Amino acid sequence: METKTTVIAPEELNKQAEICGEIRAHWAAAGRTPRAFVDTYGCQQNEADSEKIRGMLAACGYEMAETEEGADVIVLNTCAIREHAEQRVYGNVGALVHTKRRHPGQKIFLCGCMMGQDHVVQKIRESYRHVDGVFNPHQLWRFPELLKYVLSTNKRIFAAEDSAGSIAEGIPLLRQGGVKAWVSIMYGCNNFCSYCIVPYVRGRERSRRPEDILAEVRGLLDQGIRDITLLGQNVNSYGKDLGLGVDFADLLAEIARLPGDFWLRFMTSHPKDATKKLFDTMAASPKIAKQFHLPVQSGNDRVLKEMNRRYTREQYLSLVEYGRSVMPDLVLTSDIIVGFPGETEAEFEDTLSLIEQVRYDALFTFIYSPRKGTPAASMPDPATRQEKNAWFDRLVTAQNRISEEIHRSYVGKTVRVLVDGVEGESLTARTEGGRLVRFPGPADWIGRFMDVEITGHNTWSLTGQPK
Ligand code: 5AD
Ligand code: SF4
Per UniProt, where does [4Fe-4S] cluster 2 bind (predicted)? Predict the structure, then answer.
């Protein structure tokens, strides 16, 4: 597929940095520190983009606020993956009318995947007149310029041009702290699964250069980050557009060679592009976490074909088998869509049988949601909502049983965990496979790797005692 990547020139980004300086000076002259609230919907890619938005806001002199109340700038980073996500955004944007009335100088921006859809931008323009600015994912790096425009003119701005896709290095980042970090290694998606809006709103696949990624990871390790997740819509096709002869497995291996004690993870993988080389690379490095999120979506070949997934149930199962043959403790998770247009009960039952066969550690399950402009949205969809809900419940019940059984098998074992937070009386930690463990201990253990004996479990988490 043709890839048109627009590399944002350093001069352009320098210009944005200068604008940040101007905004900072504006607030310094006003004699107070402005506050910003950034609210994120959706996936980790959006969380990672929000870190950039916060970074740009911090460079403009803003302090981060915990709520929208009284904030000088509000940014909602939106998600378009399912209708429910969009409805939540519309509801919350609507409620901001009142917040803004209490704080008339407030500027409200919307960005993220919803803003990659013309019909949404149109609706915001016409029906949500308290929104001051909109930018789509390609325009994110221009946020300082958009903010300055809105602050200095009090006019609205809509930066929703459909560029083929941009890649910008050197945008400031403000991470929320802690021991974990996400690193975007590529943007966009070329797969056009027939139900999915992502390729339309995030553009074609474009990979960051390996040296830029390595430099970012080195910086994170120097700051004490111990758990790094490489992010992309389909990390398995990393590097194809660069032509450097570096594929995703090579990138992983290179990062895993960096000195220090850390776990390296990644998401999301498309099964059609997951290679034996990738599994072998994971198996060979103690720093690459033995965790694989491998969305299957359906266990039925006809449905997989209609979804344009380009693998069969058998091919998927043999991939899983190979992964487990080289990593017997591999923690496997997946995404499943229930009620794809035209799915029959028997086809749904193929998905049920697949999850019984694979025995995933955990699943993310979704009822199909039509997305305007995608091929699936115009396919006949005879199954009723009640039928789909019933299938969904059967799937969740089966998976909960499996997750509970797998968690039960941890009891009595000692596992290595990374302590990442405090929750009430307990510390929270993650195993190498990403399972949540709670156990007693002091807050200054956060950031430590330690051994914990597992003493209890439920469907979603484990409890233990430090060794
Ligand atoms: N309806 C329901 N679920 C969807 N997903 C993507 N698009 C849709 C849709 N239109 C799910 C897929 C994907 C996950 C991120 O969201 O399972 O892997
Ligand atoms: Fe959507 Fe498929 Fe791309 Fe994932 S691989 S983002 S499901 S089109």
Answer: 189, 193, 196
What 3-state DSSP class applies to 410? coil
Cβ atoms within 10 Å of 6's Cβ, excluding its own: 14
The DSSP code for 424 is T
DSSP for 60-82, written as a single string: TTPEE-SSSTT-SEEEEEE--SS
- Which residue CA neighbors atom 18 of ligand 1 most closely? 335
Peptide linkage before 428 cis (omega within 30 of 0)? no
CA angle 353, 237, 223 (to 5 degrees): 100
196 alpha carbon to ligand 1 midpoint, in Å? 6
106 vs 247: CA distance, rounded Å: 45
Residue listed under structure tokens 């997946």: 334
Closest ligand 2 atom, residue 309 Cα: 2
Mean pLDDT, range 238-264, rounded to an integer: 96
CA angle (335, 341, 343) in 5-degree steps:
75
Name all residues whose Cβ lies below 6 A of ligand 1.
Answer: 81-82, 195-196, 295, 297, 335, 337, 366, 368-369, 371
Task: Pick the atom of ligand 1 nearest to 376's CA.
Answer: 10
Segment 147-195, tens digit of pLDDT: 999 999 999 999 988 666 678 888 888 887 789 999 999 999 999 999 9
Distance 371 CA to ligand 1 centre (A): 10
The alpha carbon of 366 and the centre of ligand 1 are apart by a number of angstroms equal to: 7
Sign of CA dihedral 148, 151, 155, 156: positive
Coil, helix or strand for 83?
helix
Nearest to 111 by CA among 175, 192, 54, 181: 54
Q: Facing residues of 331 across strands? A: 291
Q: What is the pLDDT of residue 164?
A: 60
Tokens linked to 300? 């039925």
Q: 219 φ, ψ to 5°?
A: -60, -40
| Angle between the N-to-C axes of helices 143-153 and 44-59, in degrees from 0 to 180, rounded to the nearest 10 | 50
- Structure token digits, residue 263: 């776990």
Can you say which residues are annotated as belonging to the binding site for [4Fe-4S] cluster?
43, 79, 113, 189, 193, 196
